[in-house]
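Following up on my earlier thread - several people asked me to post the actual chain instead of describing it. Fair enough. Here it is, all 170 residues.
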Amino acid sequence: MSSGEPLPPGPAGRTPAALDDLDRAILRELVADGRLSMRALAERVNVSRSNAYTRVERLISDDVITGFTARVNPVRAGLGTAAYVLVNIEQNSWRKVSAQLREVPGIEHLAFVGGDVDLIMLVRTPDNASLRDIVLSRIHTVEGVRSTRTWLIFDETSPGPAENGQAATA
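Reply from S.P.:
Thanks for posting it. Predicted structure:
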C-alpha cells in the first residue's frame, strides 16, 4: 500500500485525553461490566455518585468512551466459523477498497497494516461454505483487491479485564 499519495489527516480525537487514576479505574470497571449503574460504579471506585456521573460524562464528551456494547458469543449467535483474511491491494486503491469492504456482511473488523499485507480482516460466518462465498464472491470481486490469504481460526479467547489490565487504558 505504499504510494506517493499523501495520507489523510487522522480522525478527530487522536490526541490522548489526560486521564488520572480515577478515570482509569472507571474505565476498568466499565470494560468489565458496561451495565454498571452509576451508584455501583461510584461504590467500586470509591467516589460519590455525582462524581462518577460527571467523570463518565466527561470521558464520553472527550471521546474516550465511544459507546457501550454487548459482548456476543459468536458461536451461540450462529457464527461458528471465523477466519482472518489477509488482503493485498493495488496501490492508490485503499479508499475505494475500504469503502467497498465495509459493506461486505460478515467482516467484523478491518485494519490497514504495514508489512507483507495491506489489510487484515476478521470475518465471521455460519459455516465454511459461507466463508468461501464471502472470500471468493465478495472480497475477490472488489476492484483493487489483488490477492487474499485466509487463516481459519480453530479456537479463540478474549482476555478479560482481570487478565488484561491494559484493556481499559489502551
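Strands lie at 81-89, 107-112, 119-125, 145-153. That should answer part of your original question.
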